[in-house]
From TrEMBL, chains A, B:
GO terms for molecular function: L-serine ammonia-lyase activity; threonine deaminase activity; threonine synthase activity. Its cofactor is pyridoxal 5'-phosphate. CDD domains: Thr-synth_1. This is Threonine synthase. Keywords: Lyase, Pyridoxal phosphate. GO terms for biological process: isoleucine biosynthetic process; L-serine catabolic process; L-threonine catabolic process; threonine biosynthetic process.
Amino acid sequence: MTTSSQALLRCYDCGCTYDHGDRTRCSCGEPLWFDLDVSGFEWPAETNQETGRDPATAGSWRYDAVLPVSAPDTTTLPPGSTPLVRAGALDSFADCGLYLKPEGQNPTGSFKDRGTAVGVAHALDTGADWIGTVSHGNMALSTSAYAAAAGLECAVFVPADIPSERLDLLARHDPHVFRVEGDYGRLYEETLALNTDGDAGVTFVNSDTPLRVAGQKTIAYELLEQFRLGSSNVPSSPNMPSSSAVPDAIVLPVSSGGQASGVWKALRELTRSGALADDDIPRLYFVQAAPCDPIATAFREGREEVTPIDADETIAVSIANSDPPSGTRALTAARDTDGAVVSVSDEATREAMDRLATDAGLAVEPSSAVALAGVRKLSDRGEIAADESVVTILTGSGYKESVETEPRCRDIDLADLEHELASVVES
Amino acid sequence: MTTSSQALLRCYDCGCTYDHGDRTRCSCGEPLWFDLDVSGFEWPAETNQETGRDPATAGSWRYDAVLPVSAPDTTTLPPGSTPLVRAGALDSFADCGLYLKPEGQNPTGSFKDRGTAVGVAHALDTGADWIGTVSHGNMALSTSAYAAAAGLECAVFVPADIPSERLDLLARHDPHVFRVEGDYGRLYEETLALNTDGDAGVTFVNSDTPLRVAGQKTIAYELLEQFRLGSSNVPSSPNMPSSSAVPDAIVLPVSSGGQASGVWKALRELTRSGALADDDIPRLYFVQAAPCDPIATAFREGREEVTPIDADETIAVSIANSDPPSGTRALTAARDTDGAVVSVSDEATREAMDRLATDAGLAVEPSSAVALAGVRKLSDRGEIAADESVVTILTGSGYKESVETEPRCRDIDLADLEHELASVVES
């Protein structure tokens, strides 16, 4: 395997290559990603069995053949191995054959653990003592926890007005928190400029950095392998709406564009290696919250580039990025796979979040629910057909955020137990 | 497979048997559990591969050969398949070779999902429209979510003074919540008395009911299989302190005694089937919070039975049960396996919780941290030796509860980014 310090970075757009560590942006301005030789890739199922690994715990590292770093010798936080589940009860809501990938079951409750794990492994490889990130949500928590587990110091840059609830979550893992007064988009780019690995001693794994995108792409490898095994349910997959070994579409929320880039990268690698046929490539759909939808706006307007917008507030705070650093790359991914980028109202997001919790038992954060709201919108528009299989990535658990709800409550006395229960059951 | 409606229940103590559904307590007063024929049990690893199942998502149902119900045809909430991880960074704190089983990575963030899944499967099998439970914490949340996913109505009985934060968590899955004024221990038993399955139409899966205990025992099957595969880490298991295929001890928190009973049941079944040698049986250690430790008290005093105590408040709210319905069974399990029941101070629990978050990256609830505090205490006492392998079950995620912390925060201006970071990194 090529290690990250030897690996090349390539620009998806103009094709220029650079050594990893030299820069994170191409001279053309677009973000870089790792350029690895994936020609020999094969699905690892049997191999892992032969070597005696427990697949249930191998997680993202199951795909280490296509990662720029080796798995660490040991970890308390194996990322990935989240289930892929068939959500038939939501088929009529989504108007398609719906599969869900609940990434909230990662160690710190979100998809970010996959990228963090790769960033931490690289930091350990290169002897860096510090890891850093710019985030006030899932990525900050993930980075803090993985740094703690790896014995690294962690620098987390958050906006000056971060709610105390979010700080409390982070603080358990004891990172160094920097509350920064100033433009958050500039902060993101300025930390990347400091990202000289061994030199300053801090490895920044911001959301669209090559290390993080490499880790995030394992979501796509994993869901495609699970789908392919025809085993996405427990214990079998009844009502599989499609006889194909590949879903017709993959739908996910988009913010910085890092995760969207990772999924696209996986599809490109799989077709290049021959593990995925060209006419089997799932369409990629990315979803934003309408109050803050720069990528969807560019898609709608047929533009070639994503430009910053003046955004409004949305309940989908984790994906409210008005100036997405990999926005244009995400836009390109959607077009390249015959997909789209759409945005949904907060009202539609609330409805999707509620349906996930009450019909599928899955409590997700609003930023994850946008993806299901997006599926519904795409079905309404005829872009997704009723007989198609659609995998929706639920990026994060809803249990980390407090949500005010209106519980169905009745106050009773113990003496009236049987009567009170019967009156509800029979009604 | 014997189905739950045909299955026998047996009393672990006097050996009496009953049909399932007739009662939940033996005439001698002790709790019942399923009496299944496990003589043909074999570790299912290869079998599952052959049938094309994805082991990463099969979860608890991987062990359906020893469960009283079949896996449902489909589910969005596959329980189990949580990793078993080696936590070398905590070896010196624990003074042994420490393994952790973070059950917070179950779909609703706790170990309870395993038992809930079995209860829900039984309800579906018997045509019950309702499932119920008595809980204000993890079990209530788990039951609400699984009921929602299975299309069942759910009745949750909580104390009248339940904090609104907990109600909000439940309410997302829209159960029928009954806030009950009256003694909580009596409420527990009175709901069991209503538990006539098909008749009243409500299947109660309280914490020590036979269905739940059956599901909970899969934790032990799973961790023993993972340990046996020598694959408890990613990707391999360096520094495995023991060459044995079985851990020397399993340590877990105890409250009602339901989970403790499940782990003991698994060990009994495994030895009966020949999958575990008699002299390989891990010692079982159960840990309570000192302010509320009826089982530890009975153990300490050498008594045969656990009796209710007047308890004080503890931070380990999820395990604060002063009148544990399966307390005597847990006590028996500890003695039978040459283990013990101990209690730890809230201060020791806080320290263990902090070490888990800062040295292993695992945020757990106080009720889980008591188990690690217990390991430390047992090592101090010489009951666990430094060269022994100990699996500690971390029952629930810490992300569902708000915790006040004191973050290491500094407020900076974007213009001072590089300088401020350097001053911290270099200090």
